Please model this.
Amino acid sequence: MNSKKFTILIIALFLLFTNLNAGLPTFFPVSSSKVMSLNGIYAAGNDGISSLSTNPAGLGYLNGRGVELSVFGRLGQQDYVRDDGTLFRSFRDDDIGVNIGAFWKISDKITIAADYNNAYQYRVNWPFAKFFEGELGSSVLAFDHFNDYSITSINPSAAINFGSFTIGLSLNIFNIKHDFAFYQGNAGWDTTETQNAAYQVSIFEDAWGFGGTLGIQADLSSDLRIGAFVKSSVSATLEGDARSRLMVDVDSSVSKTSVSSEFEKPWVLGLGVIYKLTDQLTINVDALYNLWGSIQTTQSFTYGNEVWNERLSNLDSLSGYTGGSFPLNFENSFDLGFGIEYDTKSDVTVRLGYRYSQAPNVESNYTMLYPAVDQHWLSFGIGFWFEEFYLDLALAYAVGIEKNVLKDKNFFFPGNYNGNAFVPSVNIKYQF
Model:
């Protein structure tokens, strides 16, 4: 393929991805196309700067220098059917991710790298309207109803090779943004014409956080490699603003105040094996364990105004939310996957993958803001080699496993939850 055709292909791929819509309620990171097509974990593998999102020890198997760009989208939708048969279906919001970075093997034993990555995105956004009827009349009100965590990271990393054994370390610098919207009811609305039946509450917070990833890889033979990594927990105090007309109309207070809350992301353990069956066929098996059960059990919002704190400290029987505290009753969860890679020996590689991903939710934790269910992920990818250029394409599809939540376990949000998603990605690497 000549350089002109290659340039046209890359431009076409970018135009394709910039028109994608997306949104997934999961903290599972999206890395490179190759890793995604081989189950998304690939703990014993190496694929350029994608190793910084999985196992940094993989850097030790790279040669020379290289720059890399990954672009990916998340095209997901959540369904919630209440126990009375009412169907809710989430929006497909724009969510395009980018991973860009470079690596350099500065000696026979040491490789350094750094990247900028916004692979973490927890997002669910619902269209929502509600009918109210009282003594003085009726009304239909529409509300923003979403939960959006956007986490970008800068990851300076290094790996040292000791022959058949490699160790890698990444420093993870996170910028965490939380955009959150729900509604709260007003019990006395039908006694006056100056108040609404319910009010929008909108919160935006952000913070910087820090973590680290330590990984190892070892060649047990020419055909067998194992890898393992551990990602540290991340804690940060989010700060920002909260807005609502509720406290103005009902309490003669202010419509905007400061707000803070604590964010926690748990320790993650990963393990994987790669085995070369033939010169052309390689398989990988991987597992991931997420210690969600070790984080805080509630996300508590502290408002800068006492009227706000008092008003939002009690459970709202209309929305089912307590505006000052949201449950995070998570349990530890795991992912298990495998992949297969076939080298055609003609500068083209074909890949297939599967991953079972367990959601940390328990029945009492399910709401429209935390609707994640277990999923089966199926993935396909193809890689091309153009001398010093590498181009990888992948498409992953998630099939949700419907979760039935009983009313005796969750009074306000019983019913059936489900979701599905497409994650297309393109990865370009120039190695020299």
Notes: Residues 3-431 form a domain with the Porin fold (CATH 2.40.160.60). Confidence is low (pLDDT under 50) at residues 8-22. The longest helix spans residues 3-17.
